[in-house]
Amino acid sequence: MRCVIASFPFDFVPSEVQTLMAGVTPEPAVGPCAVIGDHTYPVKQVGEVITRQDRRDFTAAEVTRALRRLGFTCVTAPTPSADPLG
């Protein structure tokens, strides 16, 4: 499926995304995340791996939209709150 991320077109299929993410240790799940296989990854991490672009070059929304079109579940993980009591 053709996806445009950071103004560059990519052709992905779900199995390709799964293969690219296999063996990648998930960063802490904060904010927009995607469930790929048995892991939950921040979408910016997924975008960086599958596009080989710096994550500052695209938005989380672009990657989320592409992953949803490919059939992946995307969720918003809670952001850690600052506990004023320590």
Automatic annotation (TrEMBL):
InterPro entries: SCO5918-like
Top-rank lineage group of the source organism: Bacteria
Protein name, as recorded: Uncharacterized protein
